[in-house]
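Example record used in the benchmark description.
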Amino acid sequence: MIKTIIDKNKLTMEEFRTELFDRLQKYIIEADQIFKGNNPSFQSDYEKLQAIKGITDRFCGASDILNSVLGLEVRMDDGMLYTQKLYNQLFYMNQYFEIEIRKEVGDPLNHEIRQACENLGLKGYKGYELFTFRRVRVFVNDKLVGIYDLDKHTFVD
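Model output (C-alpha cells):
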C-alpha cells in the first residue's frame, strides 16, 4: 500500500510534457555523442552498442508515457510522429554497431549453419535470412534448401 507521494518539482502538466519531450531529445544527443566517439567512457563497439541500447530503453519508456499515457503526439510536416523519427536514429545506431561487431568477431550462426550444410553434403552454402521466431531460411547455390531451427540446431520441415 502506498503511504506517501512527494512531488519535489511541483511541475504543471504542461511543464511535465515539455520536460519529457526535452528528455527524449537529450537521449538522442547523448546517443549521437557515443555513436560519433565523442564520449571517452565508451571505447569499443560493444561498449557503445550496450550504452545505446540502454538509452534506447529509456527513450522507449519516456516515449510511451508521452504518447500513450499523456496522449501527446508531435507530428512533422509529412505526418510522421516526431518520436518515431527520433527512434529511427537510435535504431540505425544500434544496427550499425551490431553489424560492426559481426564484422569483427564473425557471425557464429553463419559458421554453425555452414557446418550443418556440409554435414548433410550440401555444397555452395550462400547464407541465411530470418524466417520466423528462432528459425531461418537457408540457401545453397542461391536456392532455398530448408529451414534451420536455432533452438534445436538442426534443419526442420
